[in-house]
Amino acid sequence: MNNFHETSFKQWKQQVQFELEGADYNKTLVFKTLQEVDILPIYTSENNHLYYDINDKKTEIMIPVECFSVIPVVKKINFFKKHHFSNFFLSIHPHIDIADLLNTLPKENRYFINNKHITDEVINKLKKCIEECKLDIAVCNDYIHRYIEKGMWFRSQYDDFECFAKTFNIKKPVLFVDTTLYQNAGASIIQQIAYGISHTLEYSKHIEKTLNINRLTIYFKIAVGSHFLLEIAKLRAFHQIAMSIFDVFPFKIECMFMVEPSDRELSLSTSNYNEQYIKMAHESAILGGADFLFPKYPIIYHKKKEYQQEFKSIMTASDSLGNKASIINKSDCFQSLSYQFAKKSLLLLQNIEKNGGLLEVFKNGSLQKSIREKALEEQEQFDALVISNNIDFKDIAQKELWETYPFLKRNNTKTSVEPLIPKRLWEHLEKKHLSK
Questions:
Q1: Are residues 268 and 406 in contact, defined by beta-carbon separation less than 8 angstroms?
Q2: Which of 128, 143, 206, 355 sits CB 3.0–4.6 Å from 160 for a disulfide?
Q3: Which residues pair with 90 in a beta bridge?
Q4: How far apart are CA 114 and CA 116, in angstroms?
Q5: SS3 label, residue 365
Q6: Structural domain containing residue 149
Q7: Residue 238, domain CATH
């Protein structure tokens, strides 16, 4: 065969087809995925329609902190601050005194505060404390995410959007959009991107109509799974669409990406399966262009984690930070895959907006139905893969090791609309094994 650089893709394919001796090229060498985008055996510039580069950004670690009382929270933050971590995502329990917490938090860190049960009283305390404490704080409340997750608004759509507008005006305009539920419920990559952007448009259109701002920072929280090539391409396609869609608004928008490993493929295995899965997801997040990485703790049946255990997981994630998204700029493979995802996601996005936008397709049930169909396809393929590989469940964690229930809990609360339900792929197989 000629030197590869002097051989066109067409010539290369003809030579390969000859060497396949009659075997079908597409069935033999093209990897069919459930994502409507297939993976080719080789990519060249002939596969590309557009180059999209990610600047030489550095991914930073984001430390998640559950806030039930002030002293343990401050202790945890100080522990990680000593190890040179400075970004903290605080999930606020409704009973904690927000003023006491903010007045006690160590300075010189960056804090992202999420409080789904925020009230007017809490908003007023937030405003006052942020002004007085001079902390670097972004308020990250996604009322639409809560609505889709619970099947009902916290109070009402009007009241929740009013509350959003009040928190939005604290110090600097920040919009937080949590898209992780789509992936964890089994949505395809194209659905994740399209629903995630439409989700954001519900807020940004409201902002444009009701608020007077000059600039806005959007923080997308995204979950990534195990397929290295596709997840990197997904994040890059998400970047590409977000930058093009939000460039048309009359105020300047900066898009930031917070990425975490998905729960969907985590298992109860006591082997190193979860660690390897999470490590691959961390690599995908970084090469996909994540601004912040949420490290995932690998044991899903433990409730309370010691700092040292969590620190080990975080340091494992930190080991991957030497990589940067820019090293795969101009890669024909990733450029081709991300272009195809972006193109197909835009078509779905246009259809969603044509039918009234994200809230409308959620209210009429079409969002849940379309994701459920994709989740079923993924589950069937996953089950077949487990069977074909003769997976042994002997290392599954038994009930005596559980500190928290690891399976989906059914909520019988009556809701105004069907919620979107996250579910792990291993669940029914693990239940079947445990029942023996």
A1: yes
A2: 143
A3: 65, 113
A4: 6
A5: coil
A6: 142-342
A7: 3.20.20.240
Q: Is residue 37 part of a domain?
A: no
Cβ proximity of 289 and 326 under 8 Å:
no
Question: What pairs with residue 224 in β-bridges?
Answer: 261
Structure tokens at 281: 């997801």
CA atoms within 13 A on the CB side of 128: 11
DSSP assignment of 95-139 equals TS-HHHHHHHS-SSSEEEEE-TT--HHHHHHHHHHHHHH--EEEE
Tell me, yes or no, whether 169 lies in a domain: yes
Torsion sign across C-alpha atoms 69, 75, 78, 83: negative
Residue 133, domain member (yes or no): no
CA distance 59 to 323: 9
Q: From CA 84, how far away is CA 81, in angstroms rounded?
A: 5
CA-CA distance, 131 to 203, in Å (whole number)? 25
Tally the C-alpha atoms within 13 A of residue 199's C-alpha that lie toward its C-beta: 29
pTM given for the model: 0.92
**What are 232-271's pLDDT values in tens digits?**
999 999 999 998 998 888 888 899 999 999 999 999 999 9
Residue owning tokens 């995410």? 145
Sorting pLDDT into bands at 50, 70 and 90, what band is 23? low
